[in-house]
């Protein structure tokens, strides 16, 4: 039914929180610890829940200088993470967490001007630290995502920190406003600012697959697809989603693989057939280094110290 | 002279019967040929050769060089090519360790005692593969009654050569030409050239380059006819006056089979073809024209690679041209003043790369097309200098660098890191060449081959003694040699950093590899004695090349800092068909059951092995453009 009152409709499910509006429908799962469905204009954008990401497939330099061994805990928590708590706010006010039977108080006609759901994650590191991810949705459907990492001095430096969206099918390509080419914090002087269209999801063919395809200083990225996994959807028309920076530019990569998939291959041909799109929106990226590949560290200013809080935010809008 | 297989074991035998090294000038029958760069004095012997592979010397077909030898069971192989890539022997990549690591125990002859002669170490070795090549060719009628030679531009690592069953000689130094005189045994009609190539000899201790370990005839083989009077060697020595306005030119020719009736005409033209100078002399063994003065010269540099043309024309008294030798040369000056390297009077900045010769399909067998592509990539990305790591390249490369204004650090074919770098430790107990008298002449010969061949190229601004070979009397002797024969270039060697004892007698510059910006600052702030450069830096393995700014900033802070050569230009990996998908994929060390290996450590290029640019190239283009 068309939502005519320009408010968000909220569905207080038993295991999920549904939020609907004009041409969008989002489902946030409690037990699975993140948004499970982002449907925009009838197209699903999530394959699995969006989660924070802490790992990049080790570069030759990461291996050579021993960084991977120092930071190995982050690989574990990149793959598996605990949800510590979930909170819901309606029209800027916290509500009692709407699990059964608390949600019996609601109806099929619940509306609001703003819904915010905050996941707090507990990393599987020693010691553990927390990450909170807040999704705030307004009636137009725009989602504002705010990510906060709680610094802990006892933890090793991070390879990367961001949010990972696994998109159900392989994208046709993406477009972004930022720097040309593949850039990293310590390798971005040669990147020219502009709007770039990338065909397909290129994986830089380093001899041994490793982290690649990062674009620094990005104002927005638009992912374009023409396929879904919905068996009843026969359209091949292109559709898109746009991620926009809010207070400061972000970095991102848009690849057909997770860090772990890249990490496992010793050759390009061992990578799986590209089926999905892994969009990582990154608040912090460690430099790649270059002095040598057998010991020298990345320059200090391009590290990600674990002791400092990290904040970044972005919005997800219809493209 | 009889071929002796024991030469493989003896570091004092490295050339037998070879024509002495000489300049790389082309020679033509007339001006038309010179114009079209097509000499009728040359005939290529590339192509299909008969071939027999033997897994060791004991089972090789001895006597295969005889005309009546039954070679009906020989295969055919394409020349030039690596024997491994033809499918005969295992492809192997390893960095510093000698390729026999973990398989065979070897110590270089005489390193552990005067009586440790190394007899049989290679001549009787199970792992010493042998390629026996036979090539039948018809002597072109134009070659009748002329002196005829054969030139091998590159053969790894040791070879014996026969013509029509007669032994001609023996050669090592895989990356410089080896020439043999065929005249005494050549026949009108069909001839049989036979070449026995060994994978290993004492040269293997000196050619331990960090690359795929190939053997075989991997560069061109050419039949050469010589006119009655022939320029055997040409020395062009252009110098620039202190005000950089005028040029002085010395031209020395060494003529062979000099015909006293011949006349030598030495002509110099500008790039447009206007004759600037001309002199005629009666032919003699040595022709010397000294001190030719040119006013208001165009200097050669990266920005303006202006080349003058020298033509040595040899003709009979009646005016019939016998030979035309054209050579492009340039006026430029490199020097050190107040501990700063100056090029044409200005501080010299090296925005360089190290370049191995590479093609993902054919290994170190590369074509003019590959080289031209490399030049265009280099120019496009503001790279101004190339170090020919760690051996002399094909001759054409230097010509292209002359034409395009690419500064060259011309390195000798020498890398012996397996003899002193032990898992990161410096342990030179069996280092070669070291200071061992018996390993002295062989490295001096390599220095000479490099110099004599390439001495006329304006692009070459440094001679480099070799790479990662530690330091001792023998490398000091190479330095001394270059200083004696050539005052127009600087001498470079990095290894002196590992053995400071030789600091004052090896290398005009303080050269390091992979020093951090802080270490460079430390050197430059503490009474530095020599200008500083990085012969290798920014190790571009995989996704790398971060932090280049910190190096480029040093150019602003320290006049004695001169930049460096990025490691390196192109990934060394091989295109092979994937067993599962049939797709062409790139493979690296360890992918051929080759052990021990250093796996993907040869993938450090600014280019992928298929010559596409890595993403990091835009950073190089930016910074090298900024300091162009």
TrEMBL record, chain A:
Q: Which SUPFAM superfamilies match?
A: Galactose mutarotase-like
**Which residue range or ranges hold the Beta galactosidase small chain/ domain?**
18-317
Catalysed conversion reaction = Hydrolysis of terminal non-reducing beta-D-galactose residues in beta-D-galactosides
Extract the Pfam families matched here. Bgal_small_N
Recorded GO MF terms: beta-galactosidase activity; carbohydrate binding
Species the sequence originates in: Pectinatus cerevisiiphilus
Q: Which GO terms describe its biological process?
A: lactose catabolic process
- This protein is called beta-galactosidase
UniProt EC number: 3.2.1.23
Q: Which GO terms describe its cellular component?
A: beta-galactosidase complex
User: Keywords on this record?
Assistant: Glycosidase, Hydrolase
Name the top EC class. Answer: hydrolase
Q: Could you tell me the superkingdom of the organism this chain comes from? A: Bacteria
| InterPro entries named among the record's database cross-references | B-gal_small/dom_5, Bact_Beta-galactosidase, Gal_mutarotase_sf_dom, GH-type_carb-bd
From TrEMBL, chain B:
Give all residue intervals belonging to the Glycoside hydrolase family 2 catalytic domain: 334-626
Q: Which class of enzymes does this protein belong to? A: hydrolase
What EC number is given for this enzyme?
A: 3.2.1.23
Q: Which residues form the Glycosyl hydrolases family 2 sugar binding domain?
A: 43-227
Q: Which GO terms describe its cellular component?
A: beta-galactosidase complex
Reaction equation(s) it catalyzes:
Hydrolysis of terminal non-reducing beta-D-galactose residues in beta-D-galactosides
Q: Which GO terms describe its biological process?
A: lactose catabolic process
> Where's the Glycoside hydrolase family 2 immunoglobulin-like beta-sandwich domain?
229-332
User: Which keywords are on file for this protein?
Assistant: Glycosidase, Hydrolase
Q: Which GO terms describe its molecular function?
A: beta-galactosidase activity
Q: Does the keyword Hydrolase apply?
A: yes
Q: Which Pfam families does the record match to this protein?
A: Glyco_hydro_2 (PF00703), Glyco_hydro_2_C (PF02836), Glyco_hydro_2_N (PF02837)
* PANTHER family for the chain: BETA-GALACTOSIDASE (PTHR46323:SF2)
**Family statement drawn from the similarity comment of this UniProt entry:** Belongs to the glycosyl hydrolase 2 family.
Q: What is this protein called?
A: beta-galactosidase
